[in-house]
Amino acid sequence: MRRAGFILLLVLGFGPSLAAAYSLPPEKALQYWTQKLSHLSALEVRAQHILHEGIEGTPEVAEATLLYRRPGRFRLLRTGAKGPWAAVLQHGAAAAAQGVVRGGVRLSSESPARYWFAYFFAPGAEVLAPERSFAQEQGVLLDHPPTLWLLSRLSEAGVPWQKTRLAPYGGGKVALVLGIPRRGSPPPSGLAALPGAQAWFDNRDYFPVEFHWTGPKGTPYKAIFSEYKNDIVQYYPKRVALWVNGELAEEFVLLSVRENPPEDPAAFDLGALLLNGASKKQTGGVP
Asked: Do strands 198-202 and 208-214 pair parallel, antiparallel, or not at all (unpaired)?
């Protein structure tokens, strides 16, 4: 009885939004989100890119273009004081043709993992049979390919999305958090659940607001998405902040968007982005 009273006070304290999020299955939250992007095959974002990583004193600021294209493709182009900067993230069979180029040098294969947050904005429309089977084993009954595709990417990132909780964020708002790893709990896929791997969604609008993940070499990342429903677009955040190893590394501040730009066959050609035939030497680079 005492526990029931505590839960009632908790619900009343947070209001009806908490009660709604408490009963929402994680796959339904993702479906609400992916449906907001259903009119897009691609999204081109022009942003102010603020580089904190490796900078002493004032951060380096330059304009950048971020291109998201289904399924799960991302390209970043930037020119600043440290020379041209390009990043290509791809999924599946095309994953080998991805990487990060800075100053004409291709960095280590770890680098693309820092941009895994891009999967939220370019969910695929096709799901492999094993991914569909895994979702069904977890009790997911809906047949919505972009949602199943994104659930699969969360599993690959180590997020145990079947486990959820509520958490406050952003000064009085409530988030539905996917991923609360517990000792002895089964992994969400063939990979073990990674400590701290989580995906946060606003419990009312179901926008992604935080993503915590770990790269293939153990580097921890966090992306924070803020200021949706801004004066430019409803479904894309005004600011994206990327944290690497617990330190603020990059920020992207929205300037404009272009929906469904024409497809350029060379847009995700990393070789073409090694500008002017510069060295393709692999370096340690940034994590």
From this structure: antiparallel
- φ/ψ of residue 115, rounded to 5: -110, 20
Q: How much of the chain, in percent, has pLDDT values that exceed 90?
A: 46
CA torsion, points 15, 164, 168, 149, in degrees to nearest 10?
-110
| pLDDT (tens digit per residue) in 260-279 | 999 998 888 877 776 543 33
- CA dihedral over 189, 24, 33, 143, signed as positive or negative: positive
Q: Which of 26-30, 157-161, 273-277, 278-282 has the lowest mean pLDDT?
A: 278-282
Three-state DSSP at 134 gives helix
Closest to 98 (Cα-Cα) out of 117, 122, 82, 115: 115
Say if residues 156 and 187 touch (Cβ distance below 8 Å): no
